[in-house]
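Researcher: Quick test of sequence recovery. Tokens follow.
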């Protein structure tokens, strides 16, 4: 049992929806009874710019790294204590701080649950999608882990943005596109046959023609898994159209590399060759 002097009883009336908090209300909104309040206050003060000048230039990054652990300790019922700090870190001028949050946002979503995720994390996630590549790679590596936690309607909104991952600050950043192909394989389980054909198929075909062989090899697996998904879903029309497109784009390609791509795609899933007959 903690000493009674360290217990702080949180009053629900402090969770006012009024955006104009008084200093006293602002202090009370960060009160909880899980850990010593002084310890939490010390952690929250790590975002103070003066601390970076006097204590450690990377103190904000350390704060961002520890935030999921602090959130887990406090529990989702005390997320109000961390929300402002999280938003401050998410808009920090240092990309390393934002990158740290981007790599852990899927873990925080599990801790907070779907409602808090939709209200407080999705806007931050959307901001990271438009950030530097060093930050975007954080959300890309765990794209499936985050999107699977969203409701279907909200998840479908990101179908329109997936193609933006094909564009990077540095065109030689082939690992970015390779990671995209890996994530698309996982995303096949989250979307319908129609969504796969309309949105994921064009991206997959683009990756199959990538200049880097490592990206192409992962893309071959992506296309074969896509065929399997559509076939299992009994989406015969989509399967036939996809096969026709594969034949037209690669099998009958005037370049040998295109015809080789067709062979490699078939090689990944040999038992689907019969579909071409």
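Model:
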């Amino acid at each position: 049992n903690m000493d009674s002097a360290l217990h702080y009883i949180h009053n629900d009336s402090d969770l006012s929806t009024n955006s104009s908090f008084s200093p006293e209300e602002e202090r009370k909104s960060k009160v909880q009874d899980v850990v010593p309040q002084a310890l939490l206050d010390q952690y929250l003060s790590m975002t103070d710019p003066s601390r970076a000048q006097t204590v450690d230039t990377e103190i904000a990054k350390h704060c961002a790294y520890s935030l999921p652990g602090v959130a887990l300790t406090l529990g989702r019922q005390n997320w109000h204590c961390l929300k402002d700090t999280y938003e401050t870190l998410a808009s920090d001028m240092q990309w390393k701080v934002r990158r740290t949050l981007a790599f852990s946002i899927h873990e925080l979503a599990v801790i907070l649950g779907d409602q808090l995720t939709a209200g407080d994390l999705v806007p931050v996630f959307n901001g990271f999608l438009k950030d530097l590549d060093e930050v975007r790679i954080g959300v890309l590596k765990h794209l499936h882990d985050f999107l699977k936690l969203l409701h279907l309607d909200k998840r479908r909104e990101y179908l329109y943005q997936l193609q933006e991952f094909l564009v990077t600050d540095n065109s030689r950043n082939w690992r970015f596109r390779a990671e995209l192909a890996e994530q698309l394989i996982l995303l096949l389980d989250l979307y319908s046959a129609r969504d796969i054909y309309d949105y994921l198929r064009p991206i997959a075909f683009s990756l199959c023609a990538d200049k880097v062989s490592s990206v192409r090899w992962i893309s071959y697996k992506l296309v074969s898994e896509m065929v399997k998904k559509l076939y299992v879903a009994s989406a015969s029309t989509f399967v036939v159209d996809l096969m026709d497109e594969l034949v037209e784009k690669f099998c009958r390609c005037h370049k040998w590399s295109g015809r080789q791509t067709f062979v490699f795609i078939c090689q990944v899933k040999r038992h689907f060759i019969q579909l071409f007959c």
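Residues 30-150 form a domain with the Leucine-rich Repeat Variant fold (CATH 1.25.10.10).
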